[in-house]
Amino acid sequence: MKKTSFSPVCDACANEMDRLTIAKDYDALASYVLQQEDEYAGNNDLECAPIFFYIGTGNSTLAHHYHRSSSDNEQEITYRKKALFYFRKAISLLESGDDNHVILLPIYTNYANDLDSCGRVIEALRIYRKALSITDSFGMATANYGRALSFYA
């Protein structure tokens, strides 16, 4: 089975997103995410799928930040929509390959988390189940699936 290789640029992008998130430098994170969106806007290469995941995660982080820190939810909604878009783009590219199941686990889970945050619980549950169909031992998906199910309890 051929192993998909991802660009070293993906690691650099992930490291920078992590650095800015840990530093809670949300202005710099917003700027970096926008820079990545502009740079990869027309790119549909499988090797760049992780970058779309990181862009989605960066947008999700910014949506959570605005949710917690602002009464004006327009920014939160904008970042949440962008997060969902980039998660779907990464998923679409990775589902087209045969050997990308493991990398899909955190992407499905983060995508489902954002769906849940938008109140789209049924869709979130479907995506959590998709992650758990790859492996039922992925703790992040299992825990979030249970939390989403509690909505119906």
3D structure, described in words:
- The mean pLDDT is 90.
- Helix 5 (101-117) packs parallel to helix 7 (139-149) and helix 6 (121-134) runs antiparallel to helix 7.
- The protein starts with 7 loop residues before the first helix and ends with a helix.
- It has 153 residues and is mostly helical.
- It is built from 7 helices and no strands.
Secondary-structure map with pairings?
Blueprint: H1 8-22, H2 26-40, H3 49-69, H4 74-95, H5 101-117, H6 121-134, H7 139-149
What key attributes describe this structure?
153 residues; 7 helices; 0% strand
Describe the structure concisely.
The protein is mostly helical.
- The beta-strand count equals 0
- Approximate strand percentage: under 5%
Shape: globular
Q: What can be said about the biggest beta sheet?
A: none
Helix-strand makeup class: mainly alpha
Intertermini distance: 43 Å
Q: Give the count of helical stretches.
A: 7
Unreliable sequence segments:
none
From the alpha-carbon coordinates, what is the Rg to the nearest angstrom? Answer: 15 Å
DSSP helix fraction = over 70%
Order of helices and strands: HHHHHHH
The overall pLDDT average reads 90
